Amino acid sequence: MTMIMAEPVERTEPESSAPTEETELVRRARHGDLQAYDDLVKRYQERIYATIYHMTSNHEDANDLAQDSFIKAFQALKSFKGGSSFYTWLYRIAVNKTINFLKQRKNRTHMSLNDIDFNAEHDPDLMALISDNTPRRAAGLTELQKKLNEALLKLSEPHRLVVVLHDVQGQSHEEIAEVMGCNIGTVRSRLFYARQQMQSYLSDYLK
Amino acid sequence: MNENENNFESLRQLLARKRREIPPPGYFDKFSGQVIARIRSAGHDSASKQSLNEAPWLLKLLRMFEAKPAFAVAFASALCLLLFFGTIFAEQPESAPQPLLQASAQTAVPFVASLSPADMTPPANQTGIIASTNPVFDLQPVASLFGDQNPLAQQVSFTVPGN
């Protein structure tokens, strides 16, 4: 499947906008109400999918893992105590599933980067990011995206996750710490290290 | 930290662009439906597995059918035959009831004959209610209150104390 590039959409924070409604949906879903769970899936499907996609760089894997995560969450709803928000709990399930999958896929070198948008070469914002010294600048943007994904895949899973959640998804350090079950200091240090690694991988391509 | 943030600014902008990588239009319209369908199907599967776990003989039977399809054919043929004969017998008119009690009375005669009348009379000094344990030896048809039905009446010897 070909991924397309689109203008970023401002995300609303569902858990802060209607926490009561979400609690009610979770309560109904726990009693087997699939319509309520359908509403919950619709709320979070894009964010869960995006996180998994950026972790795996493969649409088919992301699709399967996202669906599996929602199914597992539904089956485990009875164990959801409400200590955190449903979204954080769901995110943990998705992240753990993805990390387990990536560990199994460790030796797989194939990347389905069929998602490169060739029109991106006409994007002035992106053009400005590319170093003048980039080899073969004409093909630079496509190659840059490819290199970026390769650099992401070279990171360890925890480091990649921090980069994806922070720099791609735009989550705060606190939210990431909650999802990953570690403290904020760890999140910051992982983020710094991961960026350093990526910077070195992409040094020929970035200004 | 700010210096570090500035150092990574190009990288951050590049990574932020990845937000624009989205699946084709319509993908998310179907997504939740697929999840719910899989949940439903998983529910049906688990119900089937539960019923098989509750009836292990059924599981063995099904496995035998899988291993040897000839068994499945034989089993199905047997079921069809059973159904066929069951239908035929069900359509036949009911036969007249056999006088089973009379037959049993006749068979009881030798036993009765071996007993003397003294054996059948209760002892005179016995007190309390005594029901006779005389075996059935004489069954007489009584007038029927319900048309042709002719139940058999049994004569009972009953002794009331003090009479």
Strand content of chain B: 5-15%
Relative helix content of chain A: 55-70%
Helicity range of the residues of chain B? Answer: 55-70%
Look at the helices and sheets of chain A and give the structural class: mainly alpha
Strand content of chain A: under 5%
Outline of chain B, from the CA principal axes?
Answer: elongated
Arithmetic mean pLDDT of chain A: 81
Biggest sheet layout of chain A: none
How would you sum up this structure, described in words?
The complex is a heterodimer of chains A (207) and B (163). In chain A, 65% of the residues lie in helices and 1% in strands. With 207 residues, chain A is an all-alpha fold. Mean pLDDT of chain A is 81; it is low at 8-15 and 110-122. Chain B is mostly helical and 163 residues long. Chain B has helices at 2-7, 9-16, 27-54, 56-67, 69-91, 100-113, 117-120; strands spanning 21-22, 130-131, 139-141, 152-154, 158-159. The longest helix of chain B has 28 residues, at 27-54. Strand 1 of chain A pairs antiparallel with strand 1 of chain B, so a sheet runs across the interface.
Short account of what is shown:
The complex is a heterodimer of chains A (207) and B (163). Chain A is an all-alpha fold. Chain A has helices spanning 14-17, 19-30, 34-56, 59-75, 86-104, 124-129, 140-154, 157-168, 173-180, 184-201, and one strand spanning 4-5.
